[in-house]
Amino acid sequence: MNPVLIEVLRGATVESHHTGALAIVDTGGAVHTALGDIDRPVFPRSAVKLLQALPLVATGAANAVHLTDAELALACASHNGEPEHVATAAGVLGKLGLGVDALECGPQWPSREPVLRAMAARGELASSLHNNCSGKHSGFLCVACLMAQRLGVEPATFAHGYVDAEHPAMREVSAALSAATGQDVEQAPRGTDGCSIPTFALPLRALARAFARAGTGHGLPEGHARAARRLRQAVAAEPFMVAGTDRFDSRVMAVFGERLYCKIGAEGVFCAALPELGLGVALKIDDGAARAAEAAMAAVAQALLRTDHEVLRDYSHLELKNRRGLTVGALRPAFALS
Q1: Which of 120, 143, 181, 338 is an S-S bond match for 210, by CB 3.0 to 4.6 Å?
Q2: How many whole angstroms separate alpha carbon 11 and alpha carbon 286?
Q3: Domain range holding 214?
């Protein structure tokens, strides 16, 4: 059984707790820290968007359409669907000469409530541009269009169906995941992600090693190493694009820049790269709780970076308030994690 990583307090009493597993690994696969079962395959979901974006840069597609830092950061994003995110994704499609109908991620209402309410008040409907994965999918379309150009075929026609596992653009993405993790993803359990692309269940050990490699370039093919560095630089320059207002990833990376790349995924998964330490982190909260995953990632970052910065402390020791604004409890790292 996996250990308790996060405790939830009501007053001074533990009301509930979250179990999970954590792997901290270097580029060669040596384990720095292991808590729980780090070899059980888990679906990393959106936590691996940096790895999925490697072909965008490595193939030359990003340079071909002159993507900006903001556009590259959005390719690694699970964003709020705020106006800046929507406009940036639309801008990438404009550079490709494509419309919103080219996106195959599906429509989604913005996750930031004030934005959603404002849209509803104006009578607007959500589109695929509001989907939290629209930046990633815009990046996939860049790769598909470059492939079409090199083949001398019509880009929009070639790009259609890019979410399918056997599409040439998606095969580039799968190959990048295999190279980074050292796992043949074609042999891994497969599911379909919320945005309709394939998602592969991989061990936390392999995911942590992949992010150690993405943070340093060591162990990656040369083109992927350059791509990882370029993407991390873009995210550090435009952290808002990776998530948005009041979101963990944007807040933390705005403070730490290139010292820490971190990305949450659905169902309580978190991955991170710490380039100066040569380490990668992958964790999974068993019950899928996002706030517990954020608390655990914050605690790990505090320990590894040897800092008590308030932006991390706000999450690792999150205060819980009731509807009157009274503090009624908190989250804290459990003994195994602390």
Answers
A1: 181
A2: 24
A3: 4-333
